[in-house]
Write a structure and sequence with these properties.
Length: about 170
């Protein structure tokens, strides 16, 4: 007896998480092996590859907090990862936007946690700027988390619109 597509749960999207983790960690390993700390490799007039260490969270939040933040952010990411995996399990296969968002966020969270556990900091290297304005450096895991969060918001907005149409 074969299982129908609609009855499958979202755990298949763990493969998306794994892909994000592999791409994130491979890019960071390349940076660590080839780019000295704070060195700039100019790619475009507004974009450099610049290896920096982030001891905090997004935008280096709490980066100078004395070290406790490493375990705090690792704990938060561990709890979020467990919740996301549970939600993926409980989410029906038909809820594709949700599953894509969960998979992206989970992969990004694990990619950054791996850095915190191995190095004590997150490896960031994608650096956009314009004249004197600089966006904080980020990495592949951060892109996945941001895209997953945006997709989750989009899913919520579209779901609200769909409920209004039905009502």
């Amino acid at each position: 007896m074969t299982e129908s597509v609609s009855s499958r749960n979202g755990l298949w999207f763990l493969l998306l998480s794994l892909l994000v983790i592999v791409l994130d960690q491979a890019s960071k390993l390349w940076i660590l092996a080839n780019v000295p700390l704070y060195y700039d490799i100019n790619i475009l007039p507004i974009f450099d590859i610049t290896y920096v260490r982030n001891y905090g969270a997004a935008f280096s939040f709490l980066s100078d907090a004395g070290g406790w933040q490493r375990w705090f952010f690792t704990g938060i990411a561990a709890v979020v990862s467990v919740l996301l995996t549970y939600w993926m399990y409980k989410t029906d296969w038909k809820e594709q936007r949700q599953l894509w968002s969960f998979g992206l966020i989970l992969g990004g969270a694990i990619g950054n946690v791996a850095d915190r556990l191995v190095h004590g900091y997150v490896v960031d290297f994608l650096h956009f700027y314009y004249q004197n304005w600089h966006f904080p450096a980020f990495n592949v895991a951060d892109i996945a988390i941001s895209c997953g969060a945006a997709l989750l918001l989009l899913d919520g907005v579209l779901d609200m619109k769909k409920q209004k149409v039905v009502a």
